[in-house]
């Protein structure tokens, strides 16, 4: 008789968008409620008690990893209470299965905080309080101080102070650097500056035509310029034994291992797992496949209905966009970020990088 495992198949990562609010004004914000021409519903946010209750319910279904984002998550007044709840939450890990039974153990859930590092929450003592937890911090740095402030409307000095506090506390720290037409010339210097502080994990972010930039492809960077930035950053990271990753989906046909010859192969995500291995809950409890997608499957606490809804399943089981027809790499790629083209009539051709690189389609 088959062994009955303790939890059903369920995405194991959940992004919690704790608040709509942000103290930065990045023109490339990907939140769907920032789309100036969109119709994304903005509703009354969940209470902190509701979020904490949701964590317990989600973990009971098999989620083991959380991403805390927003908006700026630390602007939630009770943010430390969310951290305390996560730190006290354990999940079951099955480590051995025999014909007679399964063996499991309890261990703490893990979480990532996506932050601009520019709020009063980020004190030295707060960073030290995170040091014993299973967490990773991603801090957004958009350029050297003057450019960062001009792009984001924030205070780079306070962001870099947060970076120092996190490093001093021994936290697992990643610096996210967006690559834009306006900062691409100084991305290398930006990375070298934070590496000098002691940062050893760099995440280059490809800005996508979602959120504020849904209808502004003219403000996006070309794949050629992005590849040049990867090369420069990768060489800087190699010198100090730091890691270099790309945090946004890239089409395999445009940026492949061959185009990165001579580099220590930065991590390049090609396949989207949103909706299958991960999902997202917005500030009011609406359930979506990911933080960039505007597709709403349902709302909490009706997880099974939301994840099983026709809209949600259609997103998860989508094919490739028309521009990918004939490509021999489809089994290695999602055609770029599906949130860019799925359900968008004017972008059904697919990822802008693919459409630019192969305007006539693929000839095989």
State the secondary-structure class: alpha/beta
| Mean pLDDT figure | 88
CATH topology: TIM Barrel
Low-confidence stretches: 1-8
- Which sequence of SSEs, written as H and E, runs from N to C? EHEHEEEHEHHEHEHEEEEHHHH
Q: What's the CATH superfamily, by name? A: Aldolase class I
- How many individual β-strands? 12
Question: Taking strands numbered 1, 2, ... along the chain, how are they ordered across the largest sheet?
Answer: 9-8-7-6-5-2-1-10-11-12
**Gyration radius from CA atoms, angstroms:** 21 Å
When the domains are counted, the total is: 1
> Which range does the strand content fall in?
15-25%
Q: Helical stretch count?
A: 11
CATH class assignment: Alpha Beta
Question: What features would you describe in this structure?
Answer:
With 364 residues, the protein is α/β, with parallel strands linked by helices. It has a single domain, classed as TIM Barrel, CATH 3.20.20.70. Helices cover 27% and strands 18% of the residues. The protein contains 11 helices and 12 strands. Helix 1 (48-60) packs parallel to helix 2 and helix 6 runs parallel beside helix 7. The protein is globular, with a radius of gyration of 21 Å.
